[in-house]
Amino acid sequence: MLFNSLEYMLIFLPIVVIVYYFLNSLKLFGVSQIWLVFSSLFFYARWNINLLPLLLFSILLNYGLGHLLISERASSRRKLILVLGISFNIVLLGYFKYTDFLIDTMNAWFGTNIPFLHIMLPLAISFFTFQQIAFLVDSYRGEIKEVSFWSYLLFIAFFPQLIAGPIVHHKEMMPQFSRLRNKVINYKNISLGLFIFSIGLFKKVILADRLAVWATTGFDQLDSLSLLEGWIASYSYTFQLYFDFSGYMDMAMGAALFFNIKLPVNFNSPYKATNIQECWSRWHMTLGNFLYRYVYLPLNRFLSRKIFTPLGLKQYVQTRTSIALLLLFLISGIWHGAGWTFVAWGVMHGVAQVIHRWWEKKGYRMNKVLAWFITFNFINASLIFFRASSFEDVGKVLKGMLGMNGIILPPYSLPLIPDSIRAYITFAPLPLSQGSKAILLIIVSLIICLCFKNSVQLLEKFKPKWYFILFTIVLFIVSILYIKNEAVFLYFNF
């Protein structure tokens, strides 16, 4: 079931909300929690019921391990339990997500002919795996004192954030479900939820899904791209990913607000960033926090204690930090997808982070507009590796962007081109259909990203005034009218 489906918006979500508050009005708080759990499991199973046992198995095993870590605080076995728990989650994720990738790599490198297993990637496995690893580590550190079975089930399976995040911590979520005031319907939160949900739906249906057409054509369907087509394809995907993920986060936050639950902010105008570090602090913020806390800091400590200090290199903090950053973004690339293009994308961002830290340490400064331009176009170029299914497709798009396949412009642009360069240009209809509409939507997308307040900022300004209500209604109705196919959100693939 998708957030942008009529089944979800007009049937599932209203029924779950109404029954939840009805049970709470009868003081059946435990029953209302169980209702949310089963509703969330139904939401997941509606996608593919065959994957539900895997989710439940992962939840049950991690709950058991977490319970041992919490209850046996003085036990010498706690570290072993933690290692086993993390190993189980990584192996589970690795089996489903990377087995065929490893087989393909072995066949290519060693000339073997191992058959692919064609394992279906379970929906949300990357997200609920990371969330449960964080739970185990927090339990080991003593940050979680106790957790009931049903609370843990709800913590992992709560449907607004189950599929693509945000990645939440137990201490962020479960106290909200326990507060009595959150068990009573709050019409302000309902209004806020409808407001931000409608914005997210508009981003997905009107912007992301339209841009997806040109991105798909450029990356997957055309054999070669001219200069203009290369840039249309790359920018289309850059903005498609932005509005698709941002729209999902808005809809997740909106649905959670119906239950008086505030999810952490996960998206904060990353394309306004003037350096790559700032961009990452604004994009998928909960994933960034997870990687920093549970990967980067342990890596840095390991490098310091086990390698640099024994070698007498303790003073080389910058080198140690650079290695940790490169490994961190390599892991981030692998987490996002099983393919060498994702590895390349991760390495690119790791190198960019190292360069940025060196630049700042030297005290260099750059004009903000130029810094934004370089940062944005680096992101756009790196996302070609993120989107392409092979390095051949990467080369195809990059060749187009560099003009290596020629320059083709639509005939109506002829009067705009100086006579001195017309001989180098072919004037013909673009193979990338509706190229003019694509350019217009790309320009509109850029203006929206740079010049308008983001959803979280709009949410903070929201008041139940007639113009906010009208704005919400218009966005929702327009989005509903333009839903043709219930397009899957991009982060479902990761």
Mean pLDDT: 89
Query: Any idea what the shape is?
Result: globular
Number of helix segments? 19
Number of E-state strands? 2
Give the strand order of the largest sheet, numbering strands 1, 2, ... along the chain: 1-2
Unreliable spans: none
Radius of gyration: 24 Å
How does the helix and strand content classify structurally? mainly alpha
Strand content: under 5%
The H-and-E topology, N to C, reads as HHHHHHHHHHHHHHHHEEHHH
Tally of individual domains: 2
Roughly what percent helix?
Answer: 55-70%
Q: What's the end-to-end separation, in Å?
A: 17 Å
Largest sheet: 2 strands, parallel
Structure write-up:
With 494 residues, this protein is an all-alpha fold. It has two domains: 6-188, no CATH class; 190-493, no CATH class. The chain contains 19 helices and two strands. It has a two-stranded parallel sheet. α1 packs antiparallel against α2, α3 packs parallel to α5 (125-140) and α15 (368-387) runs antiparallel to α16 (391-401).
